[in-house]
Amino acid sequence: MLISELAELTGVSARALRHYEDCGLLVPARTSNGYRDYAESDVTRVAQIRTMISAGLGTSTIQRYLDCARTGDHGTSLELCPDLRAELDSLARRLDARQAELRKTRRRLSRLSSVG
Q1: Does 84 share its domain with 72?
Q2: pTM for the whole thing?
């Protein structure tokens, strides 16, 4: 299928699909005239990429672990290996720290607005 068809099926822009290709996340075949030719399996691959991005993973991390992604009846999941587990734990710690900082900022803002 052409990039416009994959974009329509997945709800992802052609620009994003080209970015995924530039990052090595998608590797479409090429037709004799040079057009990208995506397989049906690329629909699932794009869903996996989008799920991983929405979970906070960057494209370089996704590239390393995309082969660990599995899609079934309940969505996308990852088969965890020790390296991936360590990266996900690190991301979770960074999110926790950021969340704590946001709570502190919110308390300071509340104190400012209640003075007077």
Answers
A1: no
A2: 0.79
